[in-house]
Amino acid sequence: MYANVMQQTQDYPKMRTTRRRKEEKEKKTIVAYKTSIIAEPFSAKSRLENALVIPPPVAGAFKERPSESTSFKRCYERGDFPIALEHDTKGNKIAWKVEIERLDYHHYLPLFVEGLSETSHPYEFFARQGVHDMLEHGGDKVLAVIPQLIIPIKKALNKRKLSVICTTLKALQHLVVAGEMIGEALVPYYRQILPILNIFKNKNINSGDGIDYSQQKRENVGDLIQETLEALERRGGPDAFINIKYMVPTYESCMLN
Q1: What is the reported pLDDT for 2?
Q2: pLDDT tens readout for residues 139-152
Q3: 73: which residues sit within 8 A by CB, 6+ positions away?
Q4: Over the chain, what is the mean pLDDT?
Q5: Is the pLDDT at 215 greater than 60, yes or no?
Q6: Cα(210)–Cα(208) distance, rounded to whole angstroms?
Q7: Within a 10 A sphere around the Cβ of 60, how many other Cβ atoms?
Q8: Are 155 and 113 in contact (CB under 8 A)?
Q9: CA distance readout (Å), 203 to 74, 134, 195, 196
Q10: Which region ranges are annotated with the description Disordered (predicted)?
Q11: Domain range summary for the chain, segments of one domain joined by +
Q12: Beta bridge partners of 83
């Protein structure tokens, strides 16, 4: 017991010295922070000893962009569309007041594609279902409207909202198979469509041992992008792969393999 007391007595000055050194170090740190100079990266001030360099800003590649009012929403609120909501045993669907084949595709189809950017009900439902209905009954009319669809598709993808991207990709897959030569007609516009797909290509959900229900609902962005790129390559003709590879370097051909 006497030995333990003597050992503690000998260690006490050491503990006080260590604590004092720690407090002095903290004071020096505070003083250095107060007297430091905030400098921008790679500037002359950033080379000083007491300089605090501002960290780089976040790139924001996956950040959602603010939504804008669409022409589809304004036209729907004015009652310009010959559509109504019909409740069925299988769910909701669009009741067209005229035959879809008689619609002016140059006027209506770009408006419905622009409505894919909407996220609120009922605009989102009418735009999504309206696009698929018009593509299903469009036939040869769709090919002539392709140049008018590029800007609305680009705007919907540039919103960078995952639900909007999934809806647009499904519409794009339907567009490719809606008629002959549509896939080849889209090849010159890959530079407008594919950059966002290149950003979100590897954004898959890693659920570990859990169950990923988004695969069944087709809401996994990475899988949808892969399916869309493969559909574009199959329908885009001989020049499709090299153009896709130029915009999405990590894409591997589904035809050559």
Answers
A1: 47
A2: 888 889 999 999 99
A3: 115, 118, 123
A4: 81
A5: no
A6: 5
A7: 9
A8: no
A9: 33, 30, 14, 12
A10: 1-26
A11: 71-202+218-247
A12: 96
Residue 30's pLDDT band (cuts 50, 70, 90): low
* Phi and psi at residue 121, to the nearest 5°: -85, 140
The pair of three-digit structure tokens given for residue 127, joined into one six-digit string: 């735009």
Residue 91 Cα distances to 122, 158, 176, angstroms: 14, 30, 26
| pLDDT for 202 | 84
Q: For residue 169, count other CB atoms closer than 10 A to its CB.
A: 25
**What average pLDDT score do residues 184-201 get?**
91
Mean pLDDT of 128-149: 90
Whether the pLDDT of residue 121 is over 90: the answer is no
Find where tokens 């030995």 sit.
Answer: 3
| Helix axes 105-114 and 71-78, enclosed angle (nearest 10) | 110
Which of the listed CATH numbers 3.40.50, 1.25.40, 1.10.3470, 1.20.1740 matches domain 71-202+218-247? 1.25.40
